[in-house]
Structures are given as structure tokens and as C-alpha cells.
Fold these 2 entries.
Entry 1:
Amino acid sequence: MYKMELKDFIKNGMCKFSFLRAGRMFYDIEMTELEGTSSTKRYYRFSIPLDDVGGATFNASERPINLMRWIRKAIDSNELMMVSLIKKQEVL
């Protein structure tokens, strides 16, 4: 199985706020891969502890480069999880 690297998320993804629970903000990263006439979307989830945030502003949508610190932590600790996979096939 291919392990996603940080550069894959930074280059190809978009982060969207999902929910807040137990002192953690959860963001989903949407990754779209195009291959021929079909596309695949994968959604990965990671969390950000509110203790880490301080007085920073977090938007509903963020570029992954802005959340790189927490994405890296999630990858390194194996806490980054795939939450959805959508395949679309275009018919010509």
C-alpha cells in the first residue's frame, strides 16, 4: 500500500473544517486524482489540539500548507485516516 507523503497533501489537497470534539478541531483533506477519463477523490482526516492553537484564526477552508505542522504530526504518528473514497467514471 502506498503511504501518502506530506508533499502529496500540500501539492494536491484542500482542507475543510469537519467538526470540533473533546478539545480538538478535525479537518478533512480532499485529494483528487485524475486518470484518463475517471477521477478518484480521497478524504483524509486529522486533528488539531485546541491547546496548540492559541489565538490563531482557522477558516472553514484552508490550504494544506497552512496546516502543514499538524498534517505532518498526523502522518508521523499514523493518526491520519482515510474517511472516504469516491470513484467517478466518465463515459465518452
Entry 2:
Amino acid sequence: MTTVQKAVAKKNKKQQDRVPQLILKQTGSAIRCTERQRQNLKGLGLRRIGHVRVLCHTPATYGMFLKVSHIVERLLELPGDIPLKG
């Protein structure tokens, strides 16, 4: 099972309602980022390079992603009505 599948399965256990989801992976270092960009990474729950998070797709989450899109990769975007399988 890949890290993306593990993250999706873990999130699916915690949250049963079908809201749109966004899967993000940190691909770059936060060393040369501004303090505000570091705070956005922290708000997204990304701690290190290679860390994968499954988040609810809200305007706030997507806005934070756009601010750090140069060091974060969007792996997948799941619509809310598709049931996830672990």
C-alpha cells in the first residue's frame, strides 16, 4: 500500500461524510521560505519533504495550497460523492 493509499484510508476512517478532498504532498524544503509560507505549511499539516496529507477541499485550504504551490504538489482531488475504498 502506497503512502497516498494509507493517507486516504486513514482519513476515510476518521471522516465518513463525503466532502470533497484534496491530497497534498510536500515536495520542497521550507528552509528558504518566508515565515508566512511556513505558517501555511503548518496549517496544511505538512511537516517534511514527502509528507502526504488528505484534507477537506475548502476555500481556506485551497488558498493555503496556492500560497505554497511551489513546494507542495497536488496529487489528487476527490469529489465528495465518490466513496473511497481503502
